[in-house]
Sequence to fold (173 residues):
Amino acid sequence: MILKQIVAWTLLIIATSATGTQIFAQDQSRANIDVLEESLKPGRGARALEGSWTVQTTIRNCQTGQAVATFAKMVTFMQGGTAQEDSVGSAPLSRSSAHGVWRYEGSQDFSYALQFFRFNADGTYGTLTKARWQVQMGNPADTYEASATIQVFNPVGVLIASACATETATRFE
Fold:
């Protein structure tokens, strides 16, 4: 009798978990979900940013717009709203990969935010860098241009530097 109940409960749990419920990696408002559902055509709308991108980034002086440094990176935007980035802007052992989130803003517009850690020469934690990007998708959706604000925090969370940036990207295929 107990064995039958265990089997019945197990089947009920399996059947319940097999229903097609959507789960998003990040908290999404109902309005944002509605926008996403209306524009889920591949290569268009909310899903146009999904995939991996080869990116050329230029760090700029926020007041003058003058270029300070230019480097390459790869950014991958995953379904559900998460993102990952690797950059050649600094030595691999002095910087972690960046992780973050992205969002469809409507029409051809997206935003994404990333953060990564930098390490001192002795391997100790040095700073936390946060970047917030505004993206304008190209037409067709195999390129984009973006601009960012960047903040650098010391190990106790005090803002120690700010910068701006621009980037151009091409879909990696």
About this structure: The two ends are 57 Å apart (CA to CA). The beta strands are 51-60, 67-78, 82-87, 98-106, 109-119, 125-137, 143-153, 159-171.
